[in-house]
Amino acid sequence: MVAVIAAIVTFLRPEAGLVGLLVAMLFSPDFMVGKAAITERAITFRASDMLIMAIGFGWMAKLAIKKEIGMIVKTPITRAIIVFSVIIILSTLQGILLGTVIPHRGFLFLLKRLQYFLIFFMVINNVRTEKGVRLCTILFLIAGIIVAVVGMVQQGLYKGTEVTAGGITSMFGVGQANTLGGFLVLELLLIICLFRIYKREKVRLLLCVAFLIVLYSLLLTHSRGSYVSFAVAIAAVSFLTKKARFAVTVFAVIVVAVIMSPKEISEEIASIRGVIPGLGTRPPSWEARVEAARASIPKIIRYPLLGTGVSSIRLDAIDIQYFHEARETGLIGLGAFLFLLISVFRMGISLLKHSEDPFIEMFGLAFLGGLIGLLVHSFASATFYTIRTMEPFWFLAGLAAVLCMKIEEAKGEA
Question: Which pTM does this prediction carry?
């Protein structure tokens, strides 16, 4: 019933449908369908899956009425999305033929990956103006702050229990602290960059409060991969803007937050240096990731071109995204994946360098910083597979593409 209402609302008011999409992405619960063997990836169903499909149906109905159903909007990354989509489909079909992929599982997980791109195209077809992008950005921030606050409440209510044993997860589900950390990195980059363009004291105060809430929630995830990705993202943003004072200020706030954080968090941050040979004991989690990546090499060599297919291994079998991609979709799939990432990066650069609008420039900076952070995060998690991180990321990518198209339109009119 909710899905039907969502489709109707999207048909009548596409912008309202996008708000529903954002809420569904971040707040809908996960349900496991059946049981998975140790070597198989568990099939999960989310309430948002049906809602996203319903919103997509409403959007396509709207396009059909306008006789635009066959039109694929040209964006800086449309070609890369099509190439990658074709490759993962071929990889999965090959896996089914070779017996490395169970057909129904391959179909479901393939749909999950393609669903990210559906979100992207829904955004660029329904958000037409910079004002719309600003509104969606504000809603994204508000939703992210709610997620962070829920995580902090979770820590207070369930501290010392298995719910928070590996770090807070908010509404992302038990064991998803690392995933929550990746999302919070995106949120923090947006807050920081928006702080630079809004000069009103009340707005800046609200952004400061939001930053501290989200930062503390990030610390409570106990995710060392997220800590490193955030630090690298800040360094990248500082380099791109060439503002040393900006970097020093942000890092000073982070250092103070770390000092004031519980002892176990400070110890976890200190243990990160062990990843570098000769600087300490390697964290066991990092050792396990490296060993899993090393163990995947024989399979990559055996299936070098298109891999063993999407869903052929458990999501947590290989935490390092790049090895996971090569294992499932082969070297061709890895190449298509890197081509997609490069295209997304170039889109962010175009926002940063080719706009005189402060909001567009800062959005591009936040998007680039978030992308760089997730690229680093991918060494600790299969980040670009994870629904809770990728749905928000492709939502933001859609907004970035809208702004890119606006820049091109302005150039054409000049």
Answer: 0.87
Identity at 45, one-letter amino acid code: F
Give 45's DSSP letter: E
* pLDDT per position as a tens digit, 196-241: 888 888 888 999 899 989 998 998 888 888 988 998 898 888 888 7
Please give the C-alpha separations between residue 272 and each of 108, 275, 282, in angstroms, as whole numbers. Answer: 36, 6, 8
How far apart are alpha carbons 304 and 308 in whole angstroms?
Answer: 9
DSSP letters, 136-200, are HHHHHHHHHHHHHHHHHHHHHHHTTSTTSTT---TTS-TT-HHHHHHHHHHHHHHHHHHHHH---
d(CA 203, CA 111): 40
Q: What values do phi and psi take at 30, rounded to 5?
A: -100, 145
Q: How many CA atoms lie within 13 A of 379 on its CB side?
A: 15
Q: What is the pLDDT of residue 321?
A: 92
CA separation for the pair 328, 200 (Å, rounded): 49
Sign of CA dihedral 306, 310, 313, 315: positive
Half-sphere exposure of residue 213: CA atoms within 13 angstroms, side-chain side? 21
Q: Cα dihedral sign for 89, 90, 92, 97?
A: positive
Q: Pairing between strand 44-46 and 30-32?
A: antiparallel
What are the tens digits of pLDDT across the range 137-177?
A: 998 999 899 989 988 888 877 776 766 767 777 766 666 78
Q: Do residues 41 and 313 touch, judged by C-beta distance below 8 A?
A: yes
